[in-house]
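Lecture notes, continued. The same structure-token format from the folding unit now serves as the input rather than the output. Read the line below as a description of shape only.
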């Protein structure tokens, strides 16, 4: 966030018309910056950047490489992949917070930024849990039940989610007296199975 307390959104997009459209949609609410390449994005990334909207397919340095560098450097920002590439099983190893398939409309892009800003206050366990769930959701939207069931990497992802859910449930259980906070977390995560004592998980129901 910058000095005037406006959240900072960095758009990383090599198509100028697309970048300008995103900027026009967001600039009334946020401090919007634009990078036309992966290397330019890394030059602009610092502690003031809150959200990165990252194109996956760019020349020279791909969005996946930029994302990996962001995570390796420990830069504390939320990242949404905004891309025309349909999600495949290779996204399981990516550390994004949301996956948005192009072309997003204005409402979708604004809602994505708003959600990511809300989630920025969550602790590390909740951030990691959400990232895992985002990868699962992207694949469930793209792949058939049979494709998911036959993929070992996807099975490992589901196991990680189950393991992380125990950690997150414990965290929420410790804060049970703070019903406003717990309720907000459930709403932000969009996953009702987070609540302690819930019945079957979504994976078991499927």
């Amino acid at each position: 966030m910058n000095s005037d307390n406006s959240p900072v959104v960095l758009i990383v997009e090599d198509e100028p018309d697309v970048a300008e459209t995103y900027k026009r949609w967001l600039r009334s609410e946020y401090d919007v910056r634009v990078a036309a390449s992966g290397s330019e994005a890394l030059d602009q990334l610092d502690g003031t950047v809150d959200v990165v909207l990252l194109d996956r397919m760019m020349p020279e340095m791909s969005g996946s490489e930029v994302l990996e560098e962001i995570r390796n450097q420990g830069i504390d920002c939320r990242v949404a992949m905004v891309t025309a590439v349909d999600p495949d099983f290779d996204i399981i190893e990516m550390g994004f917070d949301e996956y948005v398939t192009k072309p997003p409309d204005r409402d979708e892009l604004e809602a994505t930024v708003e959600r990511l800003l809300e989630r920025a206050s969550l602790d590390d366990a909740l951030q990691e849990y959400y990232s895992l769930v985002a990868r699962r959701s992207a694949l469930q939207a793209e792949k058939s039940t049979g494709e998911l069931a036959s993929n070992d990497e996807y099975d490992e992802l589901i196991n990680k989610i189950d393991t992380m859910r125990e950690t997150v449930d414990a965290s929420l259980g410790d804060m049970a007296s703070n019903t406003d906070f717990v309720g907000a977390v459930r709403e932000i995560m969009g996953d009702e199975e987070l609540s302690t004592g819930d019945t079957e998980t979504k994976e078991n129901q499927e």
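Point for the exam: The CA atoms of residues 1 and 15 lie 25 Å apart.
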